[in-house]
UniProtKB/TrEMBL annotation:
Similarity comment text for this entry: Belongs to the thiolase-like superfamily. Beta-ketoacyl-ACP synthases family.
Ketosynthase family 3 (KS3) domain mapped to chain residues: 1-286
Keywords of this entry: Phosphopantetheine, Phosphoprotein, Transferase
GO molecular function, one term: fatty acid synthase activity
SMART domains with a match to the protein in the record: PKS_KS
GO biological process: fatty acid biosynthetic process; secondary metabolite biosynthetic process
UniProt-recorded name of the protein: Thiolase-like protein
Native organism: Pseudomassariella vexata
Length: 286
């Protein structure tokens, strides 16, 4: 042992990135239902350079692909000249990819790739659609509210048809941490809806779109009708409960209004999607 060696017998520090980091990183792995092959994207097919594609939120990339699929199945690329009076209403809640883009030097595509307005905007621009192009954020109900907005736009004459739905892709741990800190997420895995062991929900990625038009127009155009929407409506809860808690009286009024507008009885309904399930707060209310 060197006779003049100095031993370090204690340590203390205070600098950015050490114990002063504002984010607790003890929990870094979360349960979820994730899409495969998220990084794959045919940028040349969609006329984007590799540099631009790298700055695009994966939500934008996936929406390009699924929008093409939806339009193709609707006959948009069929033998007749497409009617471009098409709206685009997309529910998109988070913008996780900001964290990724902010970790690199900014470029001409940084803003276009992360602003939520460009999620539907890019779709409308690429396909040359002239109807309204709107991003809607009402948290978990964004996709359903987007479909309601699309139906209203068609009935109001703002567009003849519309692409509507939602997209959600997780590319940052920060929103996971926020939800976990508020006790929304299940620490044990999958959602256990209407179960005594319900302890939160499990997040899931996905993209879902429908192409809508008036039924009479679809029949006149010779389209294959995959389903019909009899009525849509949106209602906000009261302030009698916390903002994240379902309010049964408000939901009851909405449901009865929809039944009346659609002209059907409650016993005619065979499937109901209930939001907020798998949580100790949502299950008892629903």
């Amino acid at each position: 042992m060197a006779p003049n060696a100095i031993a370090v017998v204690g340590v203390g520090c205070k600098f950015p990135g050490a114990d002063s980091h504002p984010r607790n990183t003890e929990k870094t792995v979360y349960h979820g239902n994730y899409l495969d092959d998220l990084e794959s994207f045919d940028n040349r097919f969609f006329k984007k350079s590799g540099r631009e594609a790298a700055s695009m939120d994966p939500q934008q990339r996936l929406l390009f692909e699924v929008s093409y699929q939806a339009l193709e199945s609707s006959g948009f690329f069929g033998p007749r000249e497409p009617d471009l009076d098409v709206g685009c209403f997309i529910g998109v809640c988070a913008s996780d990819y900001n964290d990724n883009v902010a970790s690199h030097s900014s470029n001409a595509f940084s803003a276009l790739g992360t602003l939520r307005a460009f999620v539907p905007g890019r779709v409308s621009h690429f396909f040359g659609l002239s109807g309204p192009s709107v991003a809607l954020d009402t948290a978990c109900s964004s996709s359903a509210v987007a479909i309601d907005a699309a139906c209203e736009a068609i009935l109001h004459g703002d567009c003849k048809s519309a692409i509507a739905g939602g997209v959600s892709v997780f590319t940052s741990p920060f929103f996971y941490q926020n939800l976990a800190a508020a006790s929304f997420l299940s620490p044990t895995g999958a959602s256990k809806s209407f179960d005594a062991s319900a302890d939160g929900y499990c997040r899931g990625e996905g993209v879902g779109l429908v192409v809508l038009k008036r039924l009479s127009q679809a029949v006149a155009d010779g389209d294959t009708v995959l389903g019909t929407i009899l009525a849509t409506s949106v209602r906000q809860s009261s302030n009698k409960v916390p903002i994240t808690v379902p309010y049964s009286p408000s939901q009851t009024v909405l449901y009865r209004k929809l039944l009346s507008t659609a002209g059907i009885a409650a016993e005619d309904v065979t499937y109901v999607e209930a939001h907020g399930t798998g949580t100790p707060v949502g299950d008892p209310t629903l």
